[in-house]
């Protein structure tokens, strides 16, 4: 276990290194010139060169990357070109909100998705099953922007149950989590139904029934752990998918997470921020996958860590 | 003083919203339309404009003198003006601020505005730390010597980049000064929670007695304009400063109650199509003229719900030197076709039209595309992120045509020269420059320089006439097809008071925070 | 007792039919699966026959397609599904958009599914460095910002449908790979896989003949779910400049362009959204039926 | 014992049908039987005759969606079970009727620990606290003689030997103390000593709680030992019913007679092999040479999952098998027989040397390994788990031929069909899937698959245990015939001493991972030296109700265990030759 963890951590560090290298290279190759954006429209070529030099952007790629890495080791992600603030500070100030949203969204997904999937599998072939599956597809196919605005309109504007966006209390968290969760819930519901159907006809479920266990015990204790394996694998994946949707959801609900930061940075080629956000999300994804891999053998003891 | 609205009420708090987070509040760096007027409320310059107008007036300066040759400006500073930290502002601070903004280490995007000050080149090259042309005569007098006469200099003394900053605070915060701004302005920064809100509170020591009117402005950032509007409709906020989102425009304008709270005004903006004059077939003036005649501007304005007026020249109507008499190119498809045929393209040609990817720009680009198709020009659209379009425009072989929307020129100050240099002059027609037509007319450059050397305010009409001629000549060469001048529609809550022109202030974009007030305080 | 060993085989022994025979027949016998097939057929026919099905040009911005104020028209007798913000006929755009969206939702998604399955199965089955190298590569791909890659490709290549399809295929396989990996690593520990090893079955055989069929339900789920997500993803990528460019229609970009108008002009979001949903659901119905048919323990359900 | 004549279970005209690819098929036809309180009813009969189906029908757990009760009544006391819904049935299952399923591997939940699976059923039907339930679970495990019961609670099914899994299933059912216990082949995977214990346990239960037992078994010894009444089934129908003594003494139906005649007996039996000379056996070119084989499993514990204990499953085993020879490996359940087999098949990491056909298994290239694979075939202990559930059995049996590129398609088909016929299946069953077979039929599929390649060595792990005696005899004959024709060697793992005695040339007795006695069949059977061997032979039940023992001798010593702390390796036994190659471990 410890050896495995150690190896995985080293591998994870390598992955992060890889991500940083590729991202850095891609940004280096990007034709949009950040210096031009910094220097403004009225700048003379000389000023532009001057700024380029100051930022070290005139150096060869290898030198630039090495410099970035050495600073990275001491936790310095550089300064934003456009905002001129420390990237670390920008990210740190927004990370808690994004993490909170992610936790909220995962909870929503699991609650909605797994229960939908479970019910559908147990009631396989019935109208309930079909309704739930259509619902899950609606969840997956609906554009998040529209879902978010609809929820906001109904529950915040019309019913005033929740605030119209913002950040602070748990009531602020509900609608954005739900918006993000609905997409994932659709996935989870489908996956859950599929693997649950598979599991429910296994012999050991028959054994459990023969023991006269309550339906809940059969489903939750015997079937669920067997069926949930593919779902666990989604922990890491989820984080990746979140990074896609987080921009939209955050801006609909005025949620101060890193999605908006990233989006603005991409639009303006603010390289230090792009790098920083990329590394942070890569870290989260790698961690999520590692977690999923570590959890898997606890759920299915036949899987060995290796 | 005279600029204060006699009906204005003191006190009250307002909430304004922006979609994007504010990048920086450092006057030497901030160059977004969003932080532009925020900085104006935190800092002051030697000059300013009458609220809601484009009329220059002295601000931190009490008065100024211009030497007859137009090369020396002497400003007398106001006494007793205090920075937010309590220290009095003096001529040293003015000099320091200008040294700072021109110093390449500051990486100010506005440094180029000060190019006419003596010693600028040395500072820009890093050879000097200080502008030799700026001298502190006494604590309340500062003298500027220019290397050439510059008619726009008073405007330059009014733009944010020249605003006065206290040295000790700048040195204290270093690169983070933009997050901890300290100026002499009407408001001071009380709170900045990244990604959530910025709070301005009234500066009790503001030298301009009676201003500002409101005690506190909270800027909430990070929310969709649509949602901001919903919040306005629910009475949660006062000013959705991203404006009325297109999707909601009809809804708002068809409701008399809401429409009454919308203020419409012009802005110093032109939306245009650039044609790369160095690239075939746009190197042929006939082709460019044909394009000018092919565009159905009325239809395009219809597509954006009539939120603009058709343009026929680079300058917007509210700009001095705008030529009302100028006819421009008519919308005439037959003529356009004929011109194309004359140019040797009777069947048209294939080309590309670049545009920014945010609504409504791709839609406008498609309308343009259809208009071009009508005369046989088959333009494929490249809708890209802002930075990529800018990159393509700055590359000589990059983009045949660009629709400027979303990145188009909003003037830094209300002077005709501001529409020329970087975007139509030879100086901008360099790799990475902003002259996306790559139009370089040495004659016009000379004429522009000549016009800008007319410093005497009494001769400004003559100067404006010269500029009108320059733009007319440009239109004859047709490197651009001007399409429209955008109108601004600012919506506010019912409790907001103040003259309408404060809400569409041409200089304080989007609004003038110092002079607005709320009606529901006693 | 007589010898228990049967004499040599009588010639009359009925030889078993080939397993897969009749899958199609059994598929069309199911009402829901048939419904799914019909929907897919309609969509494909709509895409192929678009020019004959509608009298409008998908890109023509009609003068009478907008109100005086510039608002789109709701569905009426002339424009069955209404018009869009530029005064184009929405039905026509949806029909033509099906071409793009089918390629994305089916071809690109299919390729992604294929890569993901191959990688996941291989990594899950092989212990040691192959598996862990593949999975770490997958992690890397997952951690890597796909949007950025897209932007860079946009800068390098001319944006086109095939580029966006390629990007989607290159980006979207990772999730499938991950899920398939976990399931495979559990399957690989099953005793019947051991049994296969003892009869000398090589890795390819075990993977494709024995493990893959067990993964089928998961593959079907991911394949069908992938349809809607890739179709929507295409819109995002097009927005960033790497996909089809305006005025070419795709279901995703119709939604994407108009989503802020969903209150002012709901038809602009509803109809393309319904099209995506219908396509995804149709494949889901087929997939579900296929899953039942190919699952031997479900025989007797028909 | 059968003092109360009250009928507890009454089945009338039960018909069970299953739907397959081509329509419905009746697998139980108008079966009627009654079960009285405290009575033991044995159901014996042909493999695939519907015994398990009957049991599942009683439990209302027929395989879905294929199986259903097409007609008939099942009354438990006053309740008509066929008309109950799932909720009502739930209260009856486990509480009033408990069942032990035939295939223990797939019947245990792979992701739940043994302890959890045991305690939950206790908790579901009693009001015991968690700790008490745990105590009860430990007792139940001890009762079925599982060593180290307490720490086993934490283990998972795949870490147990086949016999252990079966005993866990038994413990689970016994702990419930139901009114009716249905045991479907409960002792097939158990060695005779443990089998005796378990049977005794059943009797105890009966004595104490008046439990009625339906015992499904093909082992006529067990029938004779346990049954009050016997039902013989064939092809879904009851062919005979009667008191045990009557059936054994005066069988009426032909099939019953056939069955009884096929019962293997120690020292006799139908197909008993002629003893071959040991000299003939000790030819130099052995098929397999195993030297000092070790297999150990690390058990992890604690927060960091550090290895703290180790299962010494196989601890220095050496033997060799010559061509044409059958080596039987017998021993207590969990002593490492299957593990030895798996090591030979290359499925577990091992220490020591395994030489097959002159090639040492370790350090073989890919192609060589494939070639070795061709020569060594294994029949797994748990047939269901070792068949790919998504493949048709015909394809499964043909697969080795395909892999090794033998024969054309048509030839392959006919070869598979022949194999099916020879193991007593019909060729049209080739189209079915594994789950559509009975336990015994599946076992035959596995045998057919192993035979397909005509390998040099077949490892048969309990491979005739689920077969009724007549089919068993047929299969054994087939094995022997193959041996005669092609010189196949067998490593024959079995707990059934009678079968072993019938088929083997030599016998190795394993105990706690080591061989304690090895010699020719006659040496071991007629002159057992090691006490454990002696006990094994004594414990064999005799298929004659007249010779029924009133009580199995209970073993009172500690149950030995192969699990040890790290660093506490077991003592290595040395084998002494007591004459003519008869090796016996020195008494330690
Ligand atoms: N799920 C199923 N679908 C179709 N047929 C089945 C299914 N399960 C069992 N059968 C068939 O039902 C018949 C009776 O099977 P059953 O399991 O009751 O036999 P059995 O008497 O228990 O045999 P054994 O001693 O081999 O376990 C067999 O012919 C078998 O092929
Ligand atoms: N994967 C494993 N992890 C830990 N222990 C194991 C594992 N597999 C087997 N064992 C242990 O090894 C020992 C020997 O098991 P094996 O399966 O060889 O027994 P066996 O002689 O075949 O018994 P049976 O007759 O009951 O099948 C048992 O104590 C078992 O618990
Ligand atoms: Mg059975
Ligand atoms: Mg075993």
TrEMBL record, chain A:
Location of this chain's protein in the cell: Cell membrane
GO cellular component: plasma membrane
PROSITE patterns for this protein: ABC_TM1 (PS50928)
Transmembrane segments: 12-30, 99-122, 134-157, 169-189, 227-253, 273-299
GO biological process, one term: transmembrane transport
Keywords: Cell membrane, Membrane, Transmembrane, Transmembrane helix, Transport
Protein's name in the database: ABC transporter permease
Species: Mesorhizobium erdmanii
TrEMBL record, chain C:
This protein's GO CC annotations: plasma membrane
Compartments, record wording: Cell membrane
Ranges for domain ABC transmembrane type-1: 98-287
Topology in membrane: Multi-pass membrane protein
BP GO terms, sorted: peptide transport; protein transport; transmembrane transport
Keywords per UniProt: Cell membrane, Membrane, Peptide transport, Protein transport, Transmembrane, Transmembrane helix, Transport
InterPro entries linked: BP-dependent_transpt_permease, MetI-like, MetI-like_sf, OppC_N
First-listed, main subcellular location of the protein, grouped into a coarse class: membrane
TM stretches of this protein: 32-53, 102-125, 215-244, 264-286
Similarity comment: Belongs to the binding-protein-dependent transport system permease family.
Name this protein carries in UniProt: ABC transporter permease
Species: Mesorhizobium erdmanii
Automatic annotation (TrEMBL), chain D:
Keyword line: ATP-binding, Nucleotide-binding, Transport
Gene3D superfamilies linked to this entry: P-loop containing nucleotide triphosphate hydrolases
Leader peptide range in chain numbering: none
A Pfam cross-reference name: oligo_HPY
Protein name according to UniProt: ABC transporter ATP-binding protein
Record bears the keyword Transport: yes
SMART domains xref list: AAA
One GO BP annotation of this record: transmembrane transport
Subcellular location: Cell inner membrane
Main location: membrane
Coiled coil (UniProt feature): none
NCBIfam families, A to Z: oligo_HPY (TIGR01727), PRK10419.1 (NF007739), PRK11308.1 (NF008453)
Record-linked InterPro entries: AAA+_ATPase, ABC_transp_ATP-bind, ABC_transporter-like_ATP-bd, ABC_transporter-like_CS, Oligopep_ABC_C, P-loop_NTPase
Bilayer topology term: Peripheral membrane protein
Domain ABC transporter: from-to ranges: 9-260, 290-537
CDD domains: ABC_NikE_OppD_transporters (cd03257)
Originating organism: Mesorhizobium erdmanii
Cellular component, GO, one term: plasma membrane
């Amino acid at each position: 276990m410890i050896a495995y963890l150690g190896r995985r951590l080293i591998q994870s560090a390598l992955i992060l290194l890889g991500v940083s290298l590729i991202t850095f290279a891609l940004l280096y190759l990007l034709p949009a010139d950040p210096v031009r954006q910094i220097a403004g429209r009225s700048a003379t070529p000389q000023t532009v060169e001057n700024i380029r030099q100051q930022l070290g952007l005139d150096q060869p790629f290898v030198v630039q990357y090495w410099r970035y890495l050495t600073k990275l080791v001491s936790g310095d992600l550089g300064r934003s070109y456009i905002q001129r603030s420390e990237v670390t500070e920008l990210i740190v100030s927004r990370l808690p909100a994004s993490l909170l949203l992610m936790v909220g969204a995962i909870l929503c997904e699991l609650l909605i998705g797994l229960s939908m999937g479970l019910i559908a599998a147990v009631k396989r072939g019935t109208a309930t099953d079909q309704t739930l599956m259509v619902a899950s597809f609606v969840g997956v196919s609906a554009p998040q922007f529209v879902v978010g605005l609809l929820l906001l309109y109904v529950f915040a504007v019309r019913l005033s149950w929740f605030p119209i966006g913002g950040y602070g209390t748990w009531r602020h968290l509900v609608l954005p989590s739900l918006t993000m969760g609905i997409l994932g819930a659709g996935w989870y519901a489908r996956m859950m139904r599929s693997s649950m159907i598979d599991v429910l006809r296994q012999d050991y479920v028959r054994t459990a029934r023969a023991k006269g266990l309550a339906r809940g015990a059969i489903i939750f204790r015997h079937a669920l752990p067997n069926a949930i394996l593919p779902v666990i694998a989604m922990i890491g994946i989820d984080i990746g998918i979140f990074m896609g949707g987080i921009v939209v959801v955050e801006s609909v609900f005025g949620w101060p997470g890193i999605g908006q930061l990233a989006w603005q940075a991409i639009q303006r080629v603010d390289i230090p921020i792009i790098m920083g956000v990329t590394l942070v999300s890569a870290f989260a994804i790698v961690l999520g996958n590692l977690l999923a891999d570590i959890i898997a053998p606890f759920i299915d003891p036949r899987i060995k860590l290796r | 003083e005279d600029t204060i609205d006699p009906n204005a009420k003191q006190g009250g708090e307002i909430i304004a919203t922006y979609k994007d987070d504010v990048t920086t509040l450092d006057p030497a760096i901030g160059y977004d339309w969003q932080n532009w007027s925020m900085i104006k409320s935190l800092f002051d310059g030697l000059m300013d404009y009458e609220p809601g107008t484009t009329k220059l007036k002295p601000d931190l300066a009490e008065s100024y003198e211009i030497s007859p040759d137009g090369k020396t400006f002497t400003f007398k500073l106001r006494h007793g003006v205090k920075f937010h930290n309590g220290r009095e502002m003096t001529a040293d601070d003015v000099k320091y601020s200008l040294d700072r903004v021109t110093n390449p280490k500051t990486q100010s995007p506005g440094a180029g505005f000060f190019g006419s000050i003596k010693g600028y080149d040395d500072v820009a090259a890093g050879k000097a730390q200080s502008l030799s042309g700026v001298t502190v005569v006494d604590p309340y007098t500062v003298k500027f010597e220019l290397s050439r006469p510059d008619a726009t200099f008073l405007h330059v003394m009014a733009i944010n980049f020249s605003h006065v900053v206290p040295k000790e605070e700048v040195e204290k915060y270093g690169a983070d000064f933009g997050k901890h701004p300290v100026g002499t302005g009407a408001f001071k920064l009380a709170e900045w929670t990244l990604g959530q809100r910025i709070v301005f509170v009234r500066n009790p020591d503001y030298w301009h007695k009676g201003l500002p009117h409101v005690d506190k402005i909270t800027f909430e950032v990070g929310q969709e304009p649509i949602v901001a509007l919903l919040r306005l409709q629910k009475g949660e906020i006062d000013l959705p400063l991203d404006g009325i989102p297109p999707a909601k425009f009809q809804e708002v304008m068809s409701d008399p109650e809401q429409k009454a709270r919308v203020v419409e005004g012009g802005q110093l903006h032109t939306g245009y199509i650039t044609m790369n004059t160095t690239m075939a077939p746009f190197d042929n003036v006939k082709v460019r003229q044909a394009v000018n005649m092919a565009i159905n501007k009325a239809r395009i304005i219809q597509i954006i719900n009539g939120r603009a007026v058709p343009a026929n020249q680079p300058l917007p109507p509210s700009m001095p030197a705008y030529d009302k008499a100028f006819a421009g190119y008519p919308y005439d498809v037959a003529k356009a076709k004929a011109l194309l045929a004359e140019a040797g393209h009777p069947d048209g040609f294939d080309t590309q039209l670049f545009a920014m990817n945010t609504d409504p720009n791709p839609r406008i680009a498609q309308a343009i595309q259809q208009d071009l198709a009508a005369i046989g020009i088959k333009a494929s659209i490249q809708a890209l992120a802002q930075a990529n379009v800018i990159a393509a425009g700055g590359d000589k072989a990059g983009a045949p045509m660009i629709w400027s929307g979303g990145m188009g020129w909003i003037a830094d100050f209300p002077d005709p020269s501001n529409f020329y240099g970087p975007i139509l002059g030879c100086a901008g027609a360099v790799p990475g420059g902003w002259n996306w037509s790559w139009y370089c007319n040495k004659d016009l450059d000379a004429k522009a320089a000549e016009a800008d050397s007319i410093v005497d305010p009494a001769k400004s009409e003559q100067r404006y006439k010269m500029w009108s001629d320059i733009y007319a000549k440009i239109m004859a060469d047709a490197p651009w097809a001007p399409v429209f001048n955008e109108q601004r529609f600012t919506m506010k809550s019912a409790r907001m008071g103040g003259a309408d022109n404060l809400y569409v202030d041409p200089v304080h974009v989007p609004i003038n925070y110092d002079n607005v007030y709320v009606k529901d305080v006693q | 007792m007589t010898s228990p060993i049967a004499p040599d085989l009588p010639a009359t022994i009925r030889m078993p039919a080939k397993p897969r025979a009749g899958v199609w027949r059994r598929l069309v016998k199911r009402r829901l699966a048939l419904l799914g097939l019909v929907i897919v057929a309609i969509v494909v026919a709509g895409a192929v026959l678009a020019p004959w099905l509608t009298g409008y040009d998908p890109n023509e911005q009609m003068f009478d397609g907008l109100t005086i104020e510039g608002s789109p028209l709701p569905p009426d007798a002339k424009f069955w599904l209404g018009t869009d913000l530029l005064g184009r006929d929405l039905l026509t755009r949806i029909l033509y958009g099906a071409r793009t969206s089918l390629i994305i939702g089916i071809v690109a998604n299919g390729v992604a599914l294929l890569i993901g399955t191959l990688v996941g199965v291989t990594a899950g089955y092989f212990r040691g460095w192959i598996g862990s190298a593949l999975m770490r590569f997958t992690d890397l791909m997952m951690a890597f910002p796909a949007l950025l890659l897209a932007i860079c490709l946009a800068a390098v290549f001319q944006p086109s449908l095939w580029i966006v399809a390629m990007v989607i295929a290159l980006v979207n396989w990772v999730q499938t790979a991950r899920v398939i990996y976990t399931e495979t690593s559990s399957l690989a520990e099953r005793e019947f896989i051991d049994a296969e090893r003892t009869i000398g079955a090589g890795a390819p055989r075990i993977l494709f003949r024995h493990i893959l069929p067990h993964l089928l339900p998961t593959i079907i789920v991911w394949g069908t779910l992938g349809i809607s997500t890739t179709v929507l993803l295409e819109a995002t990528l097009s927005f960033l400049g790497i996909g089809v460019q305006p005025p070419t229609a795709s279901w995703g970009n119709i939604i994407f362009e108009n989503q802020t108008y969903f209150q002012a002009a709901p038809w602009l979001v509803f109809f393309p959204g319904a099209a995506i949903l219908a396509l995804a659901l149709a494949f889901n119905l087929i997939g579900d039926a296929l899953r039942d048919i190919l699952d031997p323990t479900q025989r007797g359900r028909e | 014992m059968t003092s109360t004549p009250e009928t507890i279970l009454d089945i009338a005209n039960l018909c069970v049908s299953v739907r397959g690819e081509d329509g419905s098929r009746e697998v139980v036809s108008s079966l009627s039987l009654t079960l009285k309180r405290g009575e033991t009813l044995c159901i014996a009969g042909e493999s695939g005759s519907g015994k398990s189906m009957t049991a599942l029908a009683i439990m209302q757990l027929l395989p879905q969606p294929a199986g259903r009760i097409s007609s008939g009544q099942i009354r438990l006391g006053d309740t008509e079970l066929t008309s109950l819904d799932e909720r009502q049935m739930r209260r009856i299952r486990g509480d009033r009727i408990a069942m032990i399923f035939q295939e223990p591997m797939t019947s245990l939940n792979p992701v739940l620990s043994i302890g959890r699976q045991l305690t939950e059923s206790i908790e579901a039907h009693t009001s015991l606290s968690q700790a008490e339930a745990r105590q009860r679970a430990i007792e139940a495990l001890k009762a079925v003689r599982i060593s180290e019961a307490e720490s086993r609670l934490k283990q998972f099914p795949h870490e147990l030997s086949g016999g252990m899994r079966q005993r866990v299933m038994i413990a689970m059912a016994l702990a419930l103390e139901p009114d009716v216990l249905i045991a479907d082949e409960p002792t097939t995977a158990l060695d005779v000593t443990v089998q005796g214990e378990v049977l005794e346990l059943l009797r105890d239960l009966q004595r104490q709680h008046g439990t009625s037992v339906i015992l499904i078994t093909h082992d006529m010894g067990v029938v004779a030992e346990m049954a009050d009444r016997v039902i013989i089934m064939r092809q879904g129908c009851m062919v005979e019913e009667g008191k045990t003594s009557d059936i054994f003494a005066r069988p009426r139906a032909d099939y019953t007679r056939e069955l009884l005649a096929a019962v293997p007996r120690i020292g006799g039996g139908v197909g008993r092999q002629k003893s071959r000379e040991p000299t003939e056996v000790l030819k130099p070119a052995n098929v397999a040479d195993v030297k000092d084989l070790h297999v150990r499993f690390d058990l992890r514990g604690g927060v960091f999952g550090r290895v703290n204990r180790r299962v010494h499953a196989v601890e220095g085993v050496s033997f060799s098998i010559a061509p044409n020879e059958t080596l039987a490996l017998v021993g207590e359940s969990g002593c490492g027989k299957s593990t030895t087999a798996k090591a030979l098949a290359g499925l577990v990491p091992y220490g020591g040397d395994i030489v097959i056909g002159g090639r040492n298994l370790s350090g073989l290239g890919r192609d060589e390994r494939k070639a070795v694979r061709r020569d060594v075939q294994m029949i797994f202990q748990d047939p269901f788990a070792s068949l790919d559930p998504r493949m048709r059995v015909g394809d499964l049996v043909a697969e080795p031929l395909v892999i090794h590129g033998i024969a054309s398609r048509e030839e392959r088909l006919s070869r598979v069909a022949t194999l099916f016929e020879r193991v007593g299946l019909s060729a049209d069953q080739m189209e079915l899937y594994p789950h559509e077979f009975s336990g015994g039929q599946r076992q035959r599929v596995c045998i057919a698959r192993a035979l397909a390649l005509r390998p040099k060595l077949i490892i048969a792990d309990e491979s005739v245990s689920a077969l009724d005696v007549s089919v068993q005899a047929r299969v054994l004959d087939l094995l022997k015939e193959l041996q005669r024709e092609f010189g196949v060697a067998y490593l024959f793992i079995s707990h059934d001493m009678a079968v072993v005695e019938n088929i083997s040339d030599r016998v190795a007795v394993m105990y706690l991972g080591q061989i304690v006695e090895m010699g020719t069949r006659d040496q071991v059977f007629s002159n057992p030296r090691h006490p454990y061997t002696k006990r094994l032979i004594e414990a064999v039940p005799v298929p004659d109700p007249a010779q029924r023992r009133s009580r199995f001798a209970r073993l009172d010593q500690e149950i030995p265990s192969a699990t040890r702390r790290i660093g506490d390796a077991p003592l290595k036994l040395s084998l002494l030759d007591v004459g003519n190659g008869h090796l016996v471990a020195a008494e330690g």
